[in-house]
Design goal:
The chain is mainly β. It is built from one helix and 13 strands, in the order βββββββββββββα. The chain has one helix at about 170-180, and strands at about 5-10, 15, 30-40, 55-60, 65-70, 75-80, 85-90, 100-105, 110-115, 120, 125-130, 140-145, 155-165. Strands 1, 3, 8, 9, 10, 11 and 13 form a seven-stranded antiparallel beta sheet that branches. A six-stranded antiparallel beta sheet has the order 2-12-4-5-6-7, with no helix packed on it. About 40% of the residues are buried.
Length: about 190
């Protein structure tokens, strides 16, 4: 907890530049992984354009590809294709207040999206999708928000640690090893 980033749910976030090797990561196979500890449940009164009813852990905005914690008390993972069709997976209900390891793995060669919580795949994972992945161009990555300056802000309330972006889809064994191997064990 001591080195994790703390977010107030109002306006805290980290912006990660998309320059260099990060710009095209989500155009093909990729993975987002992080540890997250939501402080409470996002509000059910979501405000304009649902900008408060989820807490974004990591996001790439503009038809957000992301991992988030929803007011349904589920962690969700979502990826979009070039035709603006999304693929989403959700965890079982998880109460706020505890650390959880989250990993979204998109295997573009096999056209499969997988979502893991605490080293195990969620129900329905992997999920098939079709079409080319969305090209986010110069959009940055955000930690702790969906998009801070527009609708669907989704400011995280709680703590986030050890965010990782991979330019390949991690295997189930790699995700399990990362969770069980002590990386950020809580």
């Amino acid at each position: 907890d001591g080195k994790a980033l703390q977010f107030d749910g109002v306006n805290d976030y980290v912006q990660v530049s998309n320059s260099g090797s990060l710009q095209d990561v989500t155009d093909r196979s990729f993975s987002f992984c992080a540890w997250a500890k939501p402080q409470d449940v996002p509000p059910t009164n979501c405000g304009t354009n649902n900008n408060t009813c989820e807490y974004a852990v990591i996001s790439r905005p503009g038809w957000h590809t992301n991992i988030a914690y929803a007011n349904s008390q589920q962690f969700t993972a979502e990826s979009w294709n070039a035709s603006n069709t999304n693929s989403t997976l959700a965890s079982a209900v998880i109460a706020p207040g505890s650390w959880h390891h989250l990993c979204l793995a998109v295997d573009d060669a096999a056209k499969r999206l997988s979502f893991y919580v605490d080293g195990a795949p969620v129900s329905g994972s992997p999920k098939s999708y079709s079409g080319a992945l969305r090209d986010y161009g110069t959009a940055p990555y955000y930690i702790g928000t969906g998009r801070p300056d527009y609708d669907w802000r989704w400011h995280f309330k709680g703590a986030i640690d050890e965010v990782r972006i991979y330019s390949r889809a991690l295997s189930a064994a790699e995700v399990s090893a990362q969770y069980n191997g002590g990386l950020g064990q809580r």
